[in-house]
Structure to design on (268 residues):
């Protein structure tokens, strides 16, 4: 029994089943997020030990709810991450799911994002560099076999297939551009693409390669996408760290036109 994968009615039937689970109430702050068959449970507290105990109570309640419907949690695929900017000892912080101990992990993948415990986005940028580079290599090899090595086609395929992979959700992690290391990592990835387009030597400067490739620097492209989403979304639905970066980077004339809307968001 179950919802067949790929079935037309499977999403609807699953939503009807999980709806009651998402409505469970607890005497402490808990937020449940469901996407397809993945369930994310979020608890918060000033003390990590108390937050972990609350999470254990939620896991027990969720496990009992699923068991009453002949379902179960997959402990192997369950990841525990403690988000904090402080250094917290993790030796005594863990949860149990079906008698399986789940110890804290430094990173977790969620809807295409790689979240680390310090929310620095370093691991996410590295993962995107790997996946985008792999996609660019595949695209360039197909291009050579079909049409020959053409700059215009390669630039078009980069902007249509590779760049969206890297800039996915960039309005969330655009704050990484505040550091020189983050901007350098992003430009080093673009340098590889520009060398493929221009067929230049390894010693060529990155800025020159970007100009010869007739491409916008990737860090500025990320800022452009994040800015357009900030100005198009309702107030209060944007990441504050990214909005602060945009306010510092954008020209004063542009922000003067949109200042009323942006300041309304920042004051919330």
């Amino acid at each position: 029994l179950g919802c067949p994968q790929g079935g037309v009615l499977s999403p609807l039937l699953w939503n009807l089943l999980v709806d009651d689970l998402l409505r469970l109430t607890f005497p402490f702050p808990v937020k449940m997020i469901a996407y397809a068959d993945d369930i994310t449970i979020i608890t918060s507290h000033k003390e990590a030990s108390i937050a972990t105990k609350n999470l254990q109570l939620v896991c027990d309640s969720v496990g009992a709810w699923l068991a009453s419907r002949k379902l179960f949690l997959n402990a192997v695929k369950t990841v525990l991450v403690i988000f904090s900017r402080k250094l917290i000892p993790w030796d005594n912080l863990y949860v149990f799911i079906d008698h399986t101990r789940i110890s804290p992990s430094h990173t977790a993948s969620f809807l295409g994002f790689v979240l680390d415990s310090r929310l620095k986005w370093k691991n996410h940028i590295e993962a995107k560099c790997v996946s985008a580079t792999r996609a660019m290599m595949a695209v360039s090899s197909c291009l050579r076999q079909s049409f020959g090595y053409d700059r215009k086609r390669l630039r078009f395929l980069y902007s249509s297939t590779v760049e969206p992979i890297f800039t996915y959700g960039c309005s969330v992690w655009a704050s990484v551009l505040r550091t020189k290391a983050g901007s350098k990592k992003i430009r080093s990835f673009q340098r590889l693409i520009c060398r493929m387009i221009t067929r230049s030597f390894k010693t060529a400067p990155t800025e020159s390669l970007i100009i010869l490739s007739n491409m916008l620097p990737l860090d500025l492209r990320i800022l452009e996408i994040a800015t357009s989403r900030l100005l198009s979304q309702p107030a209060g639905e944007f990441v504050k760290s990214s909005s602060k970066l945009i306010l510092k980077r954008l020209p004063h004339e542009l922000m003067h036109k949109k200042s009323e809307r942006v300041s309304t968001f920042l004051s919330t």
